Amino acid sequence: MIFNESVIRSGENNKFLLKLFHSTVNSGQRVYREHHHTEFEISVFKSGKGIYTVGKKRYEFQSGDVFIFSSDEVHCITDISADEPMDLMNIHFEPRFIWSAGNDMFDVKYLKIFFERNENFENRLDRENPKTATIRDIFFDIESEFEKKQPEYELMIKVELLKLLVTAIRGYNYVKKGTTTFSVRQQSLHNLEKAMNFIDENLPENINLDSLAKKANMSRTYFCTIFKKLNGISPWDYITIKRIEKAVEMIKTTDITMLELALKCGFNNTANFNRAFRKVTGKVPGDYRVRS
Questions:
Q1: Domains in the chain with CATH codes
Q2: What pTM did the predictor assign?
Q3: What is the pLDDT of residues 139-168, one digit of tens each?
Q4: Which is nearest to 113 in space by CA: 166, 38, 52?
């Protein structure tokens, strides 16, 4: 269950760039479900206890814990204690919310905690580190900005998110030392974002890498390289996840057949659609159909 969702959207195509929401789930054991999304995720447990499974690692969680996940990093809450209700506050944000062209202050270097992790990295931030409390406070400041919606609150949320990311980079020994941050010209960032907007607006169409690279004014090889370095996933994985996210919304809001739905979301048959759906969500399409 998700509630109190707050969103910042792109001015060009109204797609969400950042959203903050609370999740609550009933107590008990849950089947480990692989699900994938294109956004980075930072989460704070306001209450609850249980187990968070990330790939082959298991983390105990409790009130106050902070978790960080990169795009397409598989994670699932697999056990929730009945001791107290679980309230998980999440921030999901597209990497381009940070690196988007147009302002030199917002740069891919702030995403080191996602891209340049060392062997000490843990998805659950160190409970004993005082910076974890700082990050929780920033989280609550972001929530407050959404609630009050004062002038320029969206910019302030971006500033607060940058503060959170810098705190995570400085405050923990989680980032590789001596690495050079991938550098991209502003024009290349603009062209890449233009190609990504094209993807978002044309999910039902036949999209291919050559046409995307051409839109970005890049070679196919460079386009694929820069796309993955800035988003954490390949162009094809991004396209597939976005198509499945569109399918989930359509399943919940329409009664069209699965074949019609598959075609409207860019798949040429239900077999490919079902295979991609299970890979992205860990479920089958029928699990999302709202039944009266």
A1: 2-171 (2.60.120.280), 184-292 (1.10.10.60)
A2: 0.85
A3: 999 999 999 999 999 989 999 999 999 999
A4: 166
